[in-house]
Design a protein that fits this description.
This protein is 0% helix and 46% strand. It is built from no helices and five strands. It has a five-stranded mixed beta sheet with strand order 1-2-5-3-4, with no helix packed on it. A hairpin with a 2-residue loop joins β1 and β2 (17-24).
Length: 69
């Protein structure tokens, strides 16, 4: 996989809810740690993002970290 890709966006429907999902790769990483945000709040812990069928529109952003030096 090339490290030149800057990111991508998708929209996912989950029941009556919509999820705008963006993966950002600002440093040209090919793997490594990823930081998640769900509706503007950081996601911590091993469970990741839980999808809800609440009829609302949500935003998930995943950002790949800078490669280790």
């Amino acid at each position: 996989m090339s490290a030149a890709w800057p990111g991508y966006r998708i929209t996912l429907r989950h029941g009556g809810s919509w999820y705008d999902i963006e993966l950002r790769n600002p440093h040209g990483a090919t793997g490594g740690p990823v930081a998640f945000e769900h509706d503007g709040e950081p996601v911590t812990g091993p469970d990741g993002v839980s999808l809800k069928d609440d009829g609302a529109r949500h935003r998930i952003v995943a950002t790949l970290a800078a490669p280790a030096a």
